[in-house]
Specification:
It is a single chain. With 209 residues, the protein is of the alpha/beta class. The chain has a single domain, classed as P-loop containing nucleotide triphosphate hydrolases (Rossmann fold, 3-Layer(aba) Sandwich). 48% of the residues lie in helices and 11% in strands. It has a five-stranded parallel β-sheet with strand order 2-3-1-4-5, sandwiched between helices. Helix 6 links the parallel strand 4 and strand 5. The chain is globular, with a radius of gyration of 17 Å. The two termini are 28 Å apart.
């Protein structure tokens, strides 16, 4: 844990339609079974789109800044209500998407604006105690439970740029493959137990039950 008074914070990053929300829903369920209070911070993409903001390959500096700052605000609010906070897309994820959108459109960023976003991502990044990064497998079909974007070129760009942002910010992450959720769940639950102490998790802690 860091020196700030915050819960254990676990985030998932990666390109869209790679199982982030599914994994976090399972992790929240397993942690709540142990008796812990779990707060979740949802992906902001759909909310931004409903507001009329451009997303995916249309991301702009403004839409990126909105997602980053709203995400930080939501995380701070979640700190008040949980022993553990689960974040669907950490703040650096938005920076990766912005860079992917610029490359997709063949545009160059404004240096001052880009520097501002990078500084924001860098200064907030040590709030995450554990980060999982999803692994893109283009052979896995997109889910049908909601409208999915099928632009595979941009999906691959987002995957690459999110990874590059993590490297640039020196943020360690654990891989989250489509067939590796059970292993990642066990790792996350054990991590929380280590951070909070076993006494804080009196209930069952099976990640596969």
């Amino acid at each position: 844990m860091n020196d700030f008074d915050q819960p254990v914070t676990i985030a998932v990053v990666g390109t869209h339609s790679t199982g982030k929300s599914t994994f976090l829903a399972r992790l929240a369920h397993e942690l709540r079974r142990t008796g812990l209070a779990v707060s979740t911070v949802a992906d902001l993409g759909e909310q931004a789109q409903r507001m009329g903001m451009p997303i995916l390959w249309n991301h702009t500096w403004t839409s990126t800044l909105w997602i980053m700052t709203r995400g930080i605000s939501n995380e701070l609010g979640a700190w008040l209500h949980g022993d553990v906070v689960l974040v669907d897309r950490a703040v650096p994820d938005a920076l990766g998407y912005y860079r992917a959108a610029l490359e997709y459109r063949g545009e160059m960023p404004d240096p001052d604006g880009a520097s501002y976003l990078e500084t924001l991502a860098r200064t907030h990044s040590d709030r995450y105690d554990l980060i999982f990064r999803t692994q893109l497998d283009v052979d896995i079909p997109l889910g049908t439970n909601k409208t999915r974007d099928g632009n595979q070129q941009f999906r691959r760009l987002a995957d690459r740029h999110v990874g590059e942002v993590l490297t640039e910010l020196a943020l360690p992450s654990l891989p989250l493959a489509a067939d590796g959720h059970d292993t990642a769940l066990a790792l996350a639950i054990n991590f929380v137990a280590e951070q909070l102490g076993d006494d804080a998790m009196p209930g069952p802690a099976s990640a596969t039950a």
